[in-house]
Specification:
The chain is of the alpha+beta class. It has helices spanning about 15-40, 50-65, 65-75, 100-120, 130-140, 155-165, 175-200; strands at about 45, 75-85, 90-95, 145, 150-155. It is about 60% helix and about 15% strand. A five-stranded antiparallel beta sheet has the order 1-2-3-4-5. β2 and β3 form a beta hairpin. The model has no long low-confidence stretch (mean pLDDT about 85).
């Protein structure tokens, strides 16, 4: 009686968490690189403004806990700055609050899963590109900066980009940012679903 030996190809190791960690770090690196290239000047200063807001948070917390939480999560945890050494003015900043970091983490975890699945299936392009585009849009929708020519407070990078292109008289509304985030989330989800279907 003949016996047929079936040899399955070795399964690639699961590097989901390491890929997610790499993606998470890359969001900061790419964002900073874009700021340096588009605005000029290297990072020469860094701030942790959340420390100055702790006292106010504690004061509000005693009377209005929900308002205190809303106050603290929207404050920047750390800020990368290009400062003019002569005048001391912040020519541009890139700012990160708690919500931004949570969105970055969410996008990195799902993006890591997306890339890890692509490495383990023959149909590696199924859903990958649209999913990665979703990651980019989602991260962009929650990235904030300042540029001395266009804004003084933390502003969504999309608005600043339009200001830089000369659309100063055009009214920008928050739903543009919301639409971009929903589009990004939709593309990311679609990519993951297509991958799951291809891997069955």
């Amino acid at each position: 009686m003949d016996k047929t030996l079936i040899v399955h190809p070795p399964k690639k190791p699961n590097h989901w968490l390491s890929m997610s960690a790499l993606l998470f770090v890359s969001f900061f690196v790419i964002g900073l690189a874009a700021m340096i290239l588009l605005n000029g000047g290297m990072i020469n200063h860094m701030l942790f403004p959340i420390g100055a807001d702790i006292a106010m948070f504690q004061l509000i917390w005693q009377e209005q806990p929900l308002s205190a939480l809303k106050f603290i999560v929207t404050k920047s945890l750390f800020v990368f700055i290009h400062q003019d050494p002569r005048s001391g003015l912040n020519l541009w900043t890139l700012q990160y609050d708690s919500i931004t970091l949570l969105v970055y983490l969410f996008a990195a975890l799902l993006g890591g899963q997306l890339i890890n699945r692509a490495r383990q299936t023959a149909q590696h392009n199924t859903g990958l590109l649209r999913g990665l585009l979703g990651v980019v849009l989602l991260v962009t929708a929650f990235t904030y900066m300042t540029a001395i020519e266009h804004c003084s407070g933390a502003t969504w990078v999309g608005f600043v980009a339009f200001y830089g292109l000369g659309f100063n008289d055009f009214e920008f509304y928050p739903y543009y940012q919301g639409t971009l985030s929903l589009l990004g989330l939709g593309l990311l989800t679609w990519g993951l679903v297509k991958q799951a279907q291809a891997n069955r």
